[in-house]
Amino acid sequence: MARVPAVPTRAAGLFGRLAYRMARRRYGAVPEPVAVMLHHRPVFWAYGLWELGNEKAMRRLPASLRELVVYRVATQVGCSWCVDFGTMLQRQHGLDIDRLREIDSFQTSSAFTPTERRALAYADAMTALPTRVTDEMVAELDAELGHDGLVELTYAIAVENHRARFNNALGITDQGFTSGDACRVPLPSS
Cβ neighbours of residue 9 under 8 Å, at least 6 residues apart? Predict the structure, then answer.
């Protein structure tokens, strides 16, 4: 259970209920971080618009690479909600989720391409505190992905650090998006 309770549907207000309905239609359940953010309406709206903008803007990199580094950040920060939700999104996009079992040995696993290995190492370096990004890492990825690809990769990693750290701090854990159920921990309806 999250450290801050989700705003129940009856208390969500007109736009909150509309957002909940759209989320249920899209994901099968209301993502708990959204329902927790609704306690602070301006943050809720800022976050919602930010995520919509992110979805529209991040189109340069292949989804498989972008989602892979996002998943890695979630595992490194320890956000079970992000791992759960991210796995569901990868499955919905038809990506190979079986290889996620090898994420901790990405440096040597044949399940990952050399570019993916470099991107995963970059994600680890960006997520570490203090960060450990080197000029060499940036130069190699820039040569492979181009300036725009490198910027998108860096942005995707930074965005997931934001999400994962928010969820982790508020005790938001996996909802069961990958269990086959729509949501193992249902949003309170009353």
Answer: 16, 17, 20, 187, 188, 189, 190
pLDDT in tens, 131-150: 999 999 999 999 999 999 99
Question: Nearest Cα to 153, choosing from 107, 104, 114, 120?
Answer: 120
Decide if 79 is inside a domain: yes
Report the amino acid identity of residue 30: V
Taking the C-alpha atoms of residue 108 and residue 102, their distance in angstroms, rounded to an integer, is 9
pLDDT of residue 186: 34
Kindly tell me the number of DSSP H helices and DSSP E strands found in the chain.
7, 0
User: For residues 174 and 74, what is the distance between their CA atoms, to the nearest angstrom?
Assistant: 12
Tell me the CA end-to-end span of the chain in Å, nearest whole number.
16
Global pTM value: 0.91
How large is the average pLDDT for residues 161-177? 95
Query: 44 and 115 share a domain?
Result: no
CB 177 within 8 A of CB 88: yes
> 80: which 2 tokens?
């079970």
Query: Residue 96 and residue 91: Cα distance in Å, rounded?
Result: 7
- Pair 50, 128 in one domain: no
Average pLDDT over residues 49-57: 96
